[in-house]
Amino acid sequence: MNLSELFITFPEMSKESLRIFKKSIDGAYRNFSREYGDAIEAVFDPVLYFLVWFEKLLQNSPWPLVILVILILVYLGSRSIYLTIGSLFALLLIGYFGMWEDTMSTVSIIGVCTFMSIGLGIPIGIAMSNSDRARAAITPILDVMQTMPSFVYLIPVVMLLGIGKIPGLLAVIIYAIPPIIRLTDLGIREVDKEVLEAADAFGANKRQKLFRVQLPLALPTIFAGINQTIMMALAMVVIASMIGVKGLGQPVLKAITNQYFTMGLLNGLAIVALAIIFDRVSQSFGKRLQQHRSGSRE
Amino acid sequence: MNNTKIKISNLYKIFGNNSKKYIPKVRSGMSKDELLTKYNHVLGLDDINLNVAEQSIQVVMGLSGSGKSTLIRHINRLIEPTEGSVLIDDQDITKLNNSELLEFRRNRTGMVFQRFALFPHHNIIDNVKFGLSIKNVEKAESNDKAMFWIDKVGLNGFEYKFPNQLSGGMQQRVGLARALATDPDILLMDEAFSALDPLIRTDMQDQLLELQKNLKKTIMFITHDLDEALKLGDRISILNGGKLVQDGTAEDILMSPADEYVKNFVKDVNRAKVLKIKSIMNFSGVQNNSDAFVKLDDNIESCLPKILESEHELNVFDDKNKFVGLISRNNVADILKN
After folding, report:
1. Which residue of chain B comes nearest to A197, CA vs CA?
2. Cys-Cys with B44: which of A126, A298, B13, B323 at CB 3.0–4.6 Å?
3. How many CA atoms lie within 13 A of A170 on its CB side?
4. Integer angstrom CA distances of residue B13 from B32, B33, B41, B105, B186
């Protein structure tokens, strides 16, 4: 082999050793999932139980009651009568076109995902804001979570936990949690240094600083993160349906494979309607949290 | 003279990763510039020794970068000293552990900041209550105290406004009320009035002096404004490049500046406005029989017409109306010309 050849073909590892390399990792993981799959699944049982309970609650309650509750939440969040009326029409249309049950499934899984993302993401974000080392360690992980094609990390999840709600939930959370972590970190780091120094000067300890100064001042930014998380969770609905998550994603999937254009469009529009409602409500709620910043001078 | 409240001894602060190592070098005379260029460490404070009398206003003055903000942050240890001690009522606060330090800050010191540093998410009353709520003072009690101080600084009716709804001067009144609400014995004021426009600043200075008549706190006041220093300070310390170049009364600073730096600082000051008759008079001579006289502690400016109109030297009396000496036009001319 001469020198010019060496620069034209990349010196790669042999096909045989690459095959062994892949096979041994796959084998090790398969053994791991056989060994611990059930145990790990058991860990998620409470989440599954809650998810199923919430879905049934939404589906089995009388629909006018569900719509009423949603509208009340929309109004409390946004204080906008237009948005409330718009939501009413959207929900009525969704029901009229026969998508009520699927929509409730989607709302339930988005709700649980958002809830869990907040519960996990905010503490992680706080830890990140606290230490530059934690931040340096977590940031690349978040980058991987956001850019790795979701199908790739679906493979080990499905191998480990099979097909169903929990793997779907995990896939959605992996995709949707990074913004809330990043923005919690950012929000806390952006708190005015002088204000923090003032808190120090009055003898506030770390806890008091966090809960009385840093988190309240970071709240609008954190809320932007929650909004992003909800939007990303909705975007994952179709992919999650491929591994057995019920909801608006499944009819979309069916429409793709069978070329049912109208069916796909209707369900797609239902997802859009949900997205708009979630987005506007969480955004205007977030804006109201920072009213003190724009308070008018008198 | 009152007791010493704050005693700062051999205080050094070097900023950098390996600050302790360079203390001997600074001791043996390495300059701030040399330390920075050779070792990339910043000399913040260089062997500060300063005693602050109880219930006095100690002004610390210097240009930006002179270390005055660094110095004031050593009193409540917002900045850790590299070496040296800060004694407050004979307790070395550089030796406090973390929880003792928090207790110390909660009970003993209050601080007012240049850019107010109010909590933007709290209304005025909650801002004033902040120090009390950190100490877990009962709600009713802290409400009363906060209302008392809001009233004292003249912000009645603004309790439920947010900081950004108030003007700069009003915001700094909130800052002052917040610092006083925990009833600390030491008040630290870091360029507290520098961000305010001149009229409001004068107003706040008067208000501080008025409050101090009854409060009798030990106040450390940082400023870069000499007029402010002369107006407020019982004693004035001047920092240059982290070194204390002079510490004395307004009169000391004006009449005998320690070096060129201080001389430059004071050259534009209206001495007649600051100095008193006793600083420039002759403590000798014979009482003449004219009726005109001035008092020992009178401000020169206020006596100027009398002195200038008089054909001969004027009698100077002390506060018991006893003759103590004479003052002439020439005395005044000397002080005004340089």
Report:
1. B78
2. B13
3. 22
4. 11, 15, 10, 20, 22
Instruction: Return the structure tokens found at A170.
Output: 């995990």
- Optimal mutation site among A202, A223, A297, interface B, most CBs of chain B within 10 A: A202
Q: What is the pTM of this model?
A: 0.83
- Please check whether residue A59 is in contact with residue A104, taking contact to mean a CB–CB distance below 8 angstroms: yes
Cα→Cα distances B60→A216, B67, B238, B305, Å: 35, 10, 6, 34
- Tokens 């008392």, located at residue: B148
Q: Which residue of A has its CA nearest to B130?
A: A202
Sign of the four-CA dihedral B238, B244, B245, B248: positive
Instruction: Identify the band that residue A296 occupies on the pLDDT scale cut at 50, 70 and 90.
Output: very low
**ipTM for this model:** 0.85
Strands B42-53 and B243-248: unpaired
Smallest Cβ distance to A198: which of B101, B117, B161?
Answer: B117
Point out the residue among A201, A208, A292 whose CB comes nearest to the CB of B78. A201
How many alpha carbons lie under 13 Å from residue B177 in its C-beta half-sphere? 30
Q: How far apart are CA B258 and CA B252, in angstroms?
A: 9
**Do B304 and B272 form a contact (C-beta atoms < 8 A)?**
yes
CA–CA min distance A264, chain B (Å): 46
What is the spatial distance between Cα A142 and Cα B299, in angstroms, rounded to a whole number? 70
Whether residue B45 is predicted with pLDDT greater than 80 in this model: the reply is yes
pLDDT, tens digit, for every residue of A186-201? Answer: 999 999 999 999 999 9
Q: Kindly list the residues from chain B whose CB atom is less than 8 angstroms away from the CB atom of residue A298.
A: 161, 165
Give the tokens for residue B230: 């002369």
Taking contacts as CB-CB distances below 8 angstroms, the residues of chain A near B135 are 203
